[in-house]
Amino acid sequence: MQKLILLALVGLGAQLVDGSLGMAYGVTSTTLLLAIGTNPAAASATVHLAEIGTTLVSGLSHWRFGNVDWKVVLKIGVPGAIGAFAGATVLSNISTEVAAPLMAVILLVLGFYVFIRFTFQGLPKGQLGKPLRKRFLAPLGLVGGFIDATGGGGWGPVGTPAILASGRLEPRKTIGSIDTSEFLVAIAASLGFIWGIGSESIDYGWVLALLLGGVIAAPIAAWLVRHIPPRVLGAAVGGVIILTNTRSLLRSDWIDAPDGVRYAFYGVIYVAWAAAIVYSVLQYRKHAAEDKQIIAEAEHATTAGEVPDDKASANA
Question: Where does the sequence pass through the membrane (predicted)?
């Protein structure tokens, strides 16, 4: 019972982050499931089954708050579903001994990407209002879906920063569209895992616990996305992912590092993590007013049928 309550809290926290940042539900949840000894394929399957419900509620909540661009959802979501099914099939046929450290490497890379991107660059907002092309979104969705299924998460860390980096879609609509399109990815990945490992390998009590926490958090996160500083949240979440997966790798058969080496790594990560959060807060405060003005001007230009020419700051 205690484990189910903990999983529900994990689902709640992960969805709060995912719904307000556009990433990290799968990466966060899978990382914690692996930390308690869950089989990699079963962990990813559990998270994706829970995501069917959480992404549905999250998508509806973002739609109600006007955070969704449906053209983007379709252009990236369908290729994402194809990639996710393929990734689930691949992970289902890899041995646990190989899959566990391999997944930790994937999650660690994604964690570093989130951590560095949001700490030092924030949310790019240049060229807001210009259309996103299918030739950009389709390959992005295919790769993101594959990584999401094999890594237990990655749809947001791949899709959200890539679209934000294009500077063509404002942050809240990027996050809302990525969260909504993930519904298709979750369905495809779940079908792939059930076909690959069988439904008997999945603990549906865990799925329900993660789902319950995520469903409670989804509408709150959709509202928070208009108010919470994504830069600060990105630095915080990236640090959690890096710390947890560094621990998994150092204790794996691949490395099996002694205690002294592991603690030294943890100390460096803690210091860098604290410094990144402080830096992100300072940078957010420094550029908050400027960034709000840029977004307001872009929204006004889009409503008026114009395409903004502003070269925006990369800080958020």
Answer: 72-92, 98-120, 181-198, 204-225, 232-251, 263-282
Segments making up each domain of the chain, as ranges: 2-115+130-228
Provide the whole-model pTM.
0.66
**Tokens found for residue 89:** 């099939």
Question: How far, in Å, are 62, 220, 228, 301 from residue 65 at the CA level?
Answer: 5, 11, 15, 20
| Contact of 132 with 70, CB cutoff 8 Å | no
Cα gap 68→183, rounded to integer Å: 13
**In a 10 Å sphere around its CB, with 0-12 CB exposed, 13-18 middle and 19+ buried, how is residue 120 labelled?**
middle
- Which of 115, 129, 107, 219 is closest to 161 using CA atoms? 115
> Is 60 exceeded by the pLDDT of residue 24?
yes
Q: Which DSSP state fits 227? A: T
Cα 36 from chain centroid (whole Å): 21
Report the range of poorest mean pLDDT among 113-117, 148-152, 209-213: 148-152
Q: Helix count (H) and strand count (E) of the chain?
A: 11, 0
Tally Cβ neighbours within 10 Å of residue 123: 29
- Terminus-to-terminus CA distance in the chain, angstroms? 40
Task: Identify the pLDDT of residue 248.
Answer: 77
Q: Residue 78: count other Cβ atoms within 10 Å of its Cβ.
A: 18
pLDDT in tens, 250-283: 887 788 899 999 999 999 999 999 999 999 988 8
